[in-house]
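Tip: read the tokens left to right.
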């Protein structure tokens, strides 16, 4: 009985994660009204992640990111995710996926990870599997 319950919980949690992925798939589709892959602050981070993906260094002062005065990148922003995305793109880019699509998939996949964390946290606090599944569903 315990094995059957664990399997059904695993299947339900998997369904919740897949649901979260597909919801993000529709949310992060490329806007057909613009030709730029990202806008606002996302473009700022996309630019630096793309530099890392191409093997270039992030400049201390970037005039392209903020013209004409430039921005002190490492003093005024936190640059960590850009290195992770850039290095992962270089590592996994054997299928020649465009960088903007890789970034979208990165956000989709890593966006469902909090549901797993919330499930196990709720399970450890409440000892209730149904409540844990419900909480991981609501985080999606």
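Filled-in amino acids:
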């Amino acid at each position: 009985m315990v094995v059957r319950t664990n399997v059904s919980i695993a299947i339900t949690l998997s369904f919740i994660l897949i649901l979260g992925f597909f919801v993000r798939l529709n949310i992060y589709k490329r806007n057909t009204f613009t030709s730029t892959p990202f806008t606002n602050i996302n473009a700022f981070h996309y630019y630096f992640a793309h530099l890392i993906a191409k093997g270039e260094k992030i400049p201390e002062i970037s005039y392209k990111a903020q013209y004409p005065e430039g921005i002190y990148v490492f003093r005024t922003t936190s640059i960590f995710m850009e290195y992770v995305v850039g290095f992962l793109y270089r590592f996994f880019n054997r299928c020649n996926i465009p960088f903007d699509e890789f970034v979208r998939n990165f956000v989709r996949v890593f966006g469902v990870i909090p549901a797993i964390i919330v499930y196990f946290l709720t399970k450890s606090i409440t000892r209730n599997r149904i409540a844990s599944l419900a909480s991981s569903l609501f985080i999606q």
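Residues 2-139 form one domain. The longest helix spans residues 2-27.
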